[in-house]
Amino acid sequence: MLKKLLPYSLRKNLLDLLQPDRPGIGPVLRRMDRDKKVIFDIGANVGDVSCYLLHYFPQATVFGFEPCLDTHARLLENVAAAGFSDRFKPFRLGFFDQETEGTLNVASAHGASSMLELGAEYRLLNPHIEMVATEKIPLMRLDDFVARERIAHIDLVKIDVEGVELQVLRGGAETFSRLVDTVVMEISFVRRPREESEYIRLFQILHDYGFAPAEIYDVAHAGDGPWKLAQFDCVFRRF
């Protein structure tokens, strides 16, 4: 009921006042400089983080990228309901290390849709999630998009792409090396088999681009097995 009665920004201001150190990305963004002008939300989903970005950075234009057709529609609705459509540029598009058409495995929980199939450990930790459909999605290189749109600088890039982070980073080598100040990225230890060491490659490629970890938040642990760490979100800053 409160969501319907109060404007979005007022609700978030009250939440910051009442729960300043709550889990999630909100307090992380609130601690950042407010003068950001250009932000990319790669894997925007239904718009929760996009709305946070638009709220906390009132001078920013947020580019939101969500390739799933139904999820993209919900993204547009939620941003409009929050009153931020004038500073939001939506694209039904995913980023990869080449321009191609990909196959998205659409999940029963919208935040779990992925170009990857559900692995054994992911299924064990998320028994409630099922793949319900597949969908063809447009993919391109981040470098090509930035060149096409003539973007000269990006203050912040948030990446949450459910297992294809490395491909996004490889397709944006020039962009990340020269144009980006801060990266916020979800790092999973269960989307791909741990022995593939994908997480090490993510840290290495960001280091090669000039970034180092600055903050870890939203650490998620598995159950009682020997492998406790399931995922976390990490802020990377240019050194």
UniProtKB/TrEMBL annotation:
The keyword Transmembrane is annotated on this UniProt entry: no
Extent of the signal sequence: none
Domain Methyltransferase FkbM: 41-211
Pfam families: Methyltransf_21
Stored InterPro entries: FkbM_Methyltransferase, FkbM_mtfrase, SAM-dependent_MTases_sf
GO MF annotations, alphabetized: O-methyltransferase activity
Keyword set includes Cell cycle: no
GO annotation terms (biological process): methylation
Keywords: Methyltransferase, Transferase
Protein name: FkbM family methyltransferase
